[in-house]
Specification:
Blueprint: E1 2-11, E2 14-24, E3 29-33, H1 40-48, E4 55-60, E5 63-64, H2 70-75, E6 78-81, H3 93-100, H4 108-119, H5 121-125, H6 136-148, E7 154-158, H7 166-178, E8 185-190, H8 193-199, E9 202-207, E10 210-216, H9 217-222, H10 224-230
Helix pairs in contact: 3-6
The structure holds adenosine-5'-triphosphate (ATP) and magnesium ion (MG).
Length: 233
């Protein structure tokens, strides 16, 4: 579904990604774990088209994306739920969801919204309220639901568990797992390595702009280096 080869990206003179290689098969949940500043967000923004790349290739469903604008990537099925949720706080929950469907004018939008409400009943209860009044966990659910309104085949999730109470963190990881039933392929970026590797099929470890380890999620969870560096064990 998605192949990244030799991807580099820079902020001015500083290179943040030093040649990233990874691939995601259709139907997989793949995670990238790494500490603060490793380059995870930069990578996701390169994939969604919000951050320019300076070298390398992004191939999504057989097509090279390097210079494709962000909205065209969404049209092709690649949607992102950004770090820090980035919901529109002054708009209602329903308006936020409709913005996620800005590409579409068909009747399916209403059905998609009903599906979103089935998945996140709290959003239905609050559909006419300003999104800024939602709790952190509810805002995260809204950010994921909004991305799903774009009908992605591949969903990029940037630290969905960040800043949430433990019980909500579990709920969010359950939501990630449920993407399997929706047949949505997931690339999940997380500092919460334990949670992310627990729901993923495979994982990559990223350190200062490079992939340093990769493998089946269970193997990474059991790896002494991962346990020491990311799980505090
Ligand atoms: N707008 C920017 N201008 C300059 N440097 C930046 C900018 N955004 C990020 N960087 C730098 O790029 C590197 C990677 O940052 P990035 O935000 O991608 O990391 P991250 O893995 O997402 O971290 P976190 O887990 O804290 O979200 C860091 O060294 C960071 O300081
Ligand atoms: Mg980040």
């Amino acid at each position: 579904m998605l192949t990244v080869e030799g991807l580099r990206s820079r902020y001015g003179r500083i290179e943040a990604l030093h040649g990233i290689d990874l691939h995601i098969d259709s139907g997989e949940i793949v995670t990238i774990v790494g500490a603060n500043g490793a380059g995870k967000t930069t990578l996701l923004r390169c994939l969604s088209g919000l951050q320019p790349i300076s070298a390398g290739q992004i191939i999504f469903r057989g097509e090279a994306l390097a210079t494709t604008p962000a909205y065209k990537r969404l049209e092709r099925g690649l949607a992102q739920s950004p770090e820090g949720r980035q919901i529109f706080t002054n708009l209602t929950v329903e308006e936020n969801l409709r913005l996620g469907a800005f590409l579409f004018t068909d009747d399916r939008v209403d059905r998609d919204m009903e599906n979103a409400f089935q998945m996140f009943p709290i959003l239905k209860e609050k559909r006419n309220l300003a999104a800024g009044g939602l709790s952190g966990g509810q805002q995260q659910m809204l950010a994921i639901a909004r991305a799903l309104m774009g009908r992605p085949s591949c969903l990029l999730l940037d630290e969905p568990s960040m800043g949430l109470a433990p019980i909500l963190v579990q709920q969010i990881f359950d939501v990630v797992k449920s993407m399997r039933d929706l047949k949505v392929t997931v690339l999940l970026v997380e500092q919460n390595a334990f949670g992310a590797l627990s729901v993923a099929d495979r994982g990559y470890v990223m350190e200062t702009g490079r992939i340093t380890m990769e493998g089946p999620a269970g193997e990474l969870l059991a790896d002494p280096r991962v346990r020491e560096a990311y799980l505090g064990i």
